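User: Okay, second chain of the day. Same drill as before: sequence in, structure tokens out.
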Amino acid sequence: MTLAILFPGQGSQEVGMGADLFDHRPDLLGARADDILGWSLRDTCLNGPDEQLVRTDRLQPALYALSHALWEEIGPLIGGPAATAGHSLGEYNALTAAGVFDFWAGLRLVADRGRAMANAASLEKSSMAAVLGIDDAAAASAAADRRSEGGRLWVANLNGPGQVVFAGGIHDLEWLAAHAAGYGGRRVVPLKVGGGFHSPFMEQAVGPLAAALQRVEFRQPSIPVWTNLTAGPVEDYRAALLQQVVAPVRFTETLVGMGQAGIANYLHVGPGSVTAIMAKRTVADSQVHHVNSLNDIGEAVAWIESLVQ
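Assistant: Same drill. Structure tokens below.
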């Protein structure tokens, strides 16, 4: 079966997410998780408020935990997928699903990553914006042109045909809004994020994340994990996770590569459905589905079973 499992990153959250999971999986989402995090996962996910949930140090563990809880529910019900990948933070879910490290090690890692990225973001005001309609080469040119003027603007996420996310300082993103049309952009959408992720704005997060990664034992994946860094599997996933924090998320290339490898079906597991939408837009003739609540599992399993008939 040519099925890939995809996991979401920041931007897929909403207050109230995971409402059906907390009572169903208190072993994963209850007191032990709260002890590791130092705050209530349930209260943050269900009650917010939004300004608390979108905090980088809260949001990353929350999305990781809910996505994994859903994976534990559906994973045993389906055959082994051909590959897995995650968008940014979701790469930690992909590695957990592949057995590279267990959930608890991953939760600690993601908590450390969120704190490190939040601290780095606090050092210099930065944010992100999506540009719709722009191609990857034009996006790279726009960022390079701004930097040639002394600005700080980088391509951060390559999400699919005609959607590129930039990271920059506040004035750099204002420049982008004013000039994007000249590079083929149709619309600029500011993102509600805590900083300029996947760019040199995150350089101060590298040291703390490296220390956290060294505390975790990495095992060989049971299924191929396609990384954001290389848009394919790698030998050293620890190094890939470390570099990922300051490098672009190459999700378009990941999906194109999966399609060229014969993977035609994609299941998004976790809040939202964004990676399924990306796959549908990127891989010709692909079939996609999503699971973001317990109620979605039966339909998703039936869909997967239909693929092998």
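The chain has two domains: 3-122+201-307, 123-194.

User: Thanks, on to the next one.
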